[in-house]
Amino acid sequence: MSETFTLSINGIQVTARKGQTLLEVARKHGIDIPTICYHPATQSNGLCRMCVVEVEGMRLLQPACVVPAQAEMKVRTDSPRVHRARKTILEMLASTADLSEAPEIQRMMQAYQADPSRFPEAEPRHIPPIDDNPMYVREYSKCILCWRCVQICAEDAQYTYAINFSGRGYHTRIDTFYGLPMTATTCVFCGQCVGVCPTDALEPKSEYLLEQGKYPFPFR
Amino acid sequence: MSDIASLIHPYLSHGRSGLLPALQAVQAEYGWISQEQAAEIARLLHVPLAEVHGVIEFYDLLHNKPRKKRTLHVCTDAACSLRGADQRLRDLSADPTLAVKTDPGEELQVEPSPCLGLCDHAPAMVLENGWEWRILGSNGEWMDRPLSLVGGTVRRITVRCGNGRTSLSAYGGYRAWNRAQQLSPQQVIDEVKASGLFGRGGAAFPTGLKWESAARAEGWPKYVVCNADESEPGTFKDRLLLADDPHLVLEGMRIAAYAVGASKGYIYLRGEYAYLRPILEQALREAQEAGLLDGFEVEIRMGAGAYICGEETALFESIEGKRGFPRIKPPFPTTHGLFNKPTVINNVETLANVPFIIEHGAAAYRELGSEKSPGSKLFCLSGDVAQPGIYEAPFGITLKELLEMAGGMAEGGSPQAILLGGAAGAFATPRHLDIRLTYEDLRQASLTLGSGVVMVFDQRRDLRQVLLKIGRFFAHESCGKCYPCQMGTRRQAEILERLASGRLLPGDRERLEDVGWTMSDASLCGLGQTAAMAVLSAIKEWPELFTPS
Amino acid sequence: MITPDRVVRTVCPYCGVGCALELHVKDDLIYRVTSPFDSVVNQGNLCVKGRFGYNFIYHPKRVTVPLVRRYLLEGQPRPPRAEAPQASYPGNGSTPSPWDWIETDWETALNLVADHLVRIYRESGPKAMATYGSAKATNEDNYLLQKIFRALFRTNNVDHCTRLCHAGSVTALMQSLGTSAMSNTAIEVLDSDVFIVTGSNTTENHPIIALHMKRAVRERGAKLIVVDPRRIELVDFAELWLPLRPGTNVAVFSAMAHVIVKEGLYNRAFIEARTEGFEEYVKSLEKFTPEFAENVSGVPAEDIRRAARLYATAKNGAIFWGMGISQLSHGTASALTLVHLALLTGHIGRRSTGLNPLRGQNNVQGSSDMGVMPFHFPGYMRVDAPGNAEKWEKAWNIEPGGLSRELGLTTTEILSHAGPHGVRALYIMGENPMMTEPNLNKTRHHIEQLDFLVVQDLFINETGVYADVFLPATPFAEKDGTFTNTDRRVQRVRAALPPRGQSRPDWQILCDVAKRIEARLGRPTAGWEYQHPSEILAEVSRVVPEYAGITYERIEKDGLQYPVWDLKHPGTPFLFSETFPRGRGRFIPLDYVTAAETPDDEYPFILTTGRLLEHWHGGTLTRHSSLDELYPQAYVEIHPADAEMHGIQDGMMVKVSTRRGEVALRAHVTEKTTVGVLFIPMHFAEAAANLLTNDVLDPQARIPEYKACAAQVFPLHEEMLSPLPRGRY
Predict the structure, then answer these.
(1) Which residue on chain A is closest to C35 by alpha carbon?
(2) Which residues from C are below 8 Å from A194, CB to CB?
(3) How far is C36 from chain A (nearest CA, A)?
């Protein structure tokens, strides 16, 4: 058994093991910290910052998914600062991506009373659907750049490296080598990416067709 | 051997880390990188295809679509736009021959650029032609290197700047390095700690502590990296040091390497400073031939047009051949830096302070400056001052004194706002003119010195346009990794567009504040954490600007 | 976004890895497949087949009504097979033929099956009866099938495709250790510091195990040695690649053993404590110098030395292998060389070591466990060893001495014995020998000699066209049961959908067939009244000790790795920690043996065959799924140097011929294959690799030599192409 110690989360003393993140400790003790990009099967990169918490003595908010718990830490998971950051992130997300098939994020928006139309005249990331293979459809208007697909395609599972990024900043998007159709890439269609996509930006072709009221198996 | 293989031959043994130089070599030859060429590079360097594409896409100066081989980069950032850069861009875009009448040749494309680090040459333009970069002077003359105005009350680290001589013989040998070798590495570190030297890149971390941590860290090899990716709008001090006194910086690196036990060094030079590369290469060659770098191999790496790569961990990623995404800290570079090995990364100006400290001792160093901000600082004065340029002065000088040094306000204006620290900094106002420029005094006033930017706007300027420039800059330069900055810089820029065009909507000020505080408080790296500083300081100083009409 | 009516957890029906699946169902349509991220076998990862390859379930050509030939319905004698037109289903509406498929009801079809099987049994006795089980079907299905043929027809002519994939490995492991399954759990490779992958394109054939392997290399710093004639993807992750000529395994691995012995790298303590036959074996190694091996295999002697040292000096060395070892006329010898390496170094009986034959099919391990083999009752009890038959006679309510103690015929032998005096009636459940047997031209001749063929399947495949009765079964998603994966994990298969049309789960069909046969034979009942498959497994557990502790309740979530000796036993991740089933591990001296056919002037290439990521075996499932869209046609892989010499360009039509047949297909010019070696995947009926392969058998394991035969290739102009029948109806 590795070293254990105590820290305080929202004033409650909790025990933790060395190497655990604040998120793991909090969830183990039933303290809710919302996450978007976090997934147990992929490397945590602290992208979405929904899991930020206040740690006494730290100037800035800390991402709970990557910050290791330490003895004597004093953590607040829902202070006004934390709340403001989370709410604003959600509102910006709603003005950026199509969240219609992201029920978990929609639930978070309700919980944080986030206004989906907070940012008028904001330019969403509009990208037409890409239907270039028999297995899955890519609707990057729904993509929230959680990176899970890129990571699971690479070292987090598959070592296939079919996808990476194009563009930068707000206009980053997931892309293949020179934008080639998926069938012309190293993709092995394992669908690991589909499996970890939180917004249905990646969706099985069968589900995509069924949503449109079509029969999902159009055999040749 | 294929054409590509011979072009990128020097980088084949680097593997993934050779990716940026390889892409740059191919692009220098062809002007852009085709799919077939990229695939060949991927094959030769064993980098996945999609990642090669991802890297090309990240950097402004790498292109994967056909284009003309030459590019005229026109700076349109704040300082240059004060001097008509936007109009000039419009004119040149309509008729590029206007720019090349003194240099007819192949066709070129004209592109706006973020701050080129030539604020003392505003409005600045640089012509890119493969590896060759040249500056277009304000009188239409081409220059291979910028001629800089250097002033100030002291000439401690700029002592050799401005004389046009950069040879080793002019430098006169590495005296500090000779002295360092008579000390133990720990004694060198102790001397630097005693001097109170702290980082000049903006974060102001104590240099001695950084070195000590890297020296104590487990892992081999260790690296010393010189951060010469000077990209903060309004900053051009490192450009001056590298152009006018490269040996000073090299000597600083050599001492750092000795102190921490590093065997390899990198100078990561901003892509837009490509015209400095021959100067650095020449200095490196001289130092190597004189045996001054024995046991310490230094490699020059070129940036490729990404402000974020000035962030230390993003810079590492870039050297490693990746997109310049900043890493989560901790772990810190001193234990897990370049190639995940212990690394000291220092700003150019920081390293330039080291030889003086070692040669003359910490006590002599402390003769200038304050207790908490010892030594001198290079200030980059630009905007509406009579003589934009680099001014060296001890910490503790006041803003008013600095402005006087630069000849006062240009064209009889009076200061309305002074942007301290660059786009990532905050606005000072005339009521701050007597504040002492030290880290401690500025922090108390909620201001920052950052990298030493002092950008002055007189009373005739529309600050809303300045804010828009800043907003657009960050929206362009956000790497896109963490959500607050990726979306926040964009939403901020959109609102600033409304602000600048007088179309502010009810609630926009609150939106700017929410976005700004969220970026400041929750972003992953320094870029996002400072992307709203200027806007938030403007809201505080001039709230009336943010009220919908 | 679709809200599912239900999400059903089950097991993937393709390879032996046994990945957990969650089928998301709306209106009886499976629209999405996921995998739980806490699944012990695959941690949420799937391959293209598991995630997207299920929609054969909905293919319009799936047969969902019992079919019988017109002559049977009309009570006519069987017309000559030669008179059978290219019968199609549904009928093409032309002139009626006695061979027309007629849709009928279950009662009629089952009675016809029972009538004719019993008729032939009465006419010709047990030797006329035979069956192929299915490594695709559940343990319960397979157990019942062999029970029918053993208990009712008193024959051991029971086999399945294990004969065609790992029989060589099974025989070798049985001889030297006394058992045949994978010794360790695949994911333990994460803690191996050196591992050998040979004769296995793991990335394509066991994709999830390949993920563990790649992670072991990239994240854990393990060293991988690939021994394979093809430049498979894992070579990119390997420390060493030994590209041997197909069929020269014995030389290469014996040379490694030679080096280990000569350099004193063997584990003396282990050899003394746990093995026998070492001295004699060492003598047999003399001839296997690395130089000798280089000469026959083309692998540099120095690389053989390096591989030997690397493996021998590992802390935890493991060996993984596939058909490239076993599908040879010396498959047993070939697998024995691997056993020897483990015994020499003691890399067995501990975690992250071991001898790991990667089993191909989702349930090939289970089908073997269930006794769908001609030499073994369930639980690997030899039919000819004293005491075993008695156990099953008791379990099945059979008079003492009633069960046959004679070894039955193997898969390939069953068909080669077809004829009036040999096998007359064959019952095939979910296999496609007309694609998967070697030398298909000969196989076709054999199958035409049968008097009565029952096929129980989803589609009328290349074999189904020869059937007299076709019984529509259900696929994995429409039935309950268990599969046993390659690392001996017995896992629960669950119905997510009702059977389509009139199709029925195999176990139910088999019970109904059995009862009808039993009634006609007038035997006391062997027991066929099962309400649920769990009752079938319970019957197995009562007699097979390794399965004694396995119940449906216990495998609700993760499954159990047998042996599970009792209801408290937690299962066995790795075997042999104390002893081998036969006591001491046995070294068996070997001579050099190689492929039966070697290249010559007329056939200068070595042809090797195998599988693709996107397809599955005979193609019955995958070629009726959207996987076929992804990979619609066959290619022959040829090395650029060979292609240039023969004037072949990438994508060009070529003809590949051997002494047994020829196929026309496109060339894929690639360095994935080595000089002098052609590769053709086995899945494509229109260019069936097995028209070319050699039907020579390993003398002990009786596995055919799919992996090496002499071949020729030449470019074909489009106008020279004769329209090849697609072969599927």
Answers:
(1) A195
(2) 51
(3) 10
CA–CA separation, C234 vs C210, rounded Å? 8
| pTM for this prediction | 0.95
* Domain residue limits at C386: 67-162+362-451+497-545
CATH (domain of C296): 3.40.228.10
Residue A191 with chain C: CB contacts under 8 Å: 33, 46, 48, 51-52
Q: Which of 3.40.50.10260, 3.40.30.10, 3.40.50.720, 3.90.1150.10 would CATH assign to domain B70-142?
A: 3.40.30.10
pLDDT tens-digit map of C705-721: 999 999 999 998 766 66
Which residue did the predictor score with more confidence, C82 or C247? C247
CA pair distance A115, B93, nearest whole angstrom: 42
Element (H, E) at A196: helix A192-196
Residues on chain B touching A119 (C-beta within 8 angstroms): 491, 494, 511
- pLDDT at residue C86 above 60? no
Q: How far apart are CA C471 and CA C439, in angstroms?
A: 27
Res C637 pLDDT > 60: yes
Which CATH superfamily hosts domain B151-365?
NADH-ubiquinone oxidoreductase 51kDa subunit (3.40.50.11540)
CB atoms within 10 A of CB B21: 20
| Spatial distance between the Cα atoms of C175 and C177, rounded to a whole number of angstroms | 6
Q: Which residue of A has its CA nearest to B35?
A: A178
Cβ distance A169 to B515 less than 8 Å, yes or no, reads no
Chain C positions in Cβ-Cβ contact with residue A207 (cut-off 8 Å): 2, 31-32
Q: Do A45 and B481 touch (CB under 8 A)?
A: yes
Q: Where are the domains of chain B?
A: 3-58, 70-142, 151-365, 376-458, 463-546
> How far C35 CA sits from the closest chain A CA (Å)?
8
Beta strands in C193-272 (DSSP E): 194-198, 223-227, 240-242
Closest of C8, C1, C61 to residue C30, by C-alpha: C8
C257-283 residue pLDDT tens: 999 999 999 999 999 999 999 999 999
> B463-477 and B483-500 helices cross at what angle (nearest 10)?
150
pLDDT for C674 beyond 70 = yes
Look up the CATH architecture of domain B376-458.
Roll (3.10)
Mutate to test the interface with B, among A177, A180, A185 (most CBs of B within 10 A): A177
Answer whether the bond into residue C581 is a cis peptide, omega within 30°.
Answer: no
Report whether pLDDT(C188) > 90. Answer: yes
A136-211, what's its fold?
Alpha-Beta Plaits (3.30.70)
Tell me how far CA of residue A73 lies from CA of A33, A60, A81, in angstroms.
Answer: 17, 15, 18
Quick count: other Cβ atoms within 10 Å of Cβ C385?
Answer: 12
- Which chains have at least 3 CB atom pairs separated by less than 8 Å from chain B? A
pLDDT over threshold 80, residue C192: yes
If contacts are CB pairs under 8 Å, which of residues 22-61 in chain B contact chain A? 35, 38-39, 48-54, 57-58
How many CA atoms lie within 13 Å of B510's alpha carbon, on the beta-carbon side?
8
Beta bridge partners of C426: C130, C453
Last residue of a domain, one of C299, C322, C357: C357
Please state the domain extents for chain A.
1-123, 136-211
Indicate whether C329 and C385 sit together in one domain: no
Which tokens sit at B449? 């010195």
Whether C718 has its CB under 8 Å from any CB of chain A: the answer is no
Write out the CATH class of domain B463-546: mainly alpha
- For A89, the closest of B54, B484, B489 (CB atoms) is B484
- Cβ-contact C191, C221 below 8 angstroms: no
Q: Which of A148, A206, A209 to mutate to test the interface with C (most CBs of C within 10 A)?
A: A206
The CB density around residue C644, as the number of other CB atoms within 10 Å, is 12
C48 to A210: CB separation less than 8 angstroms, yes or no: no
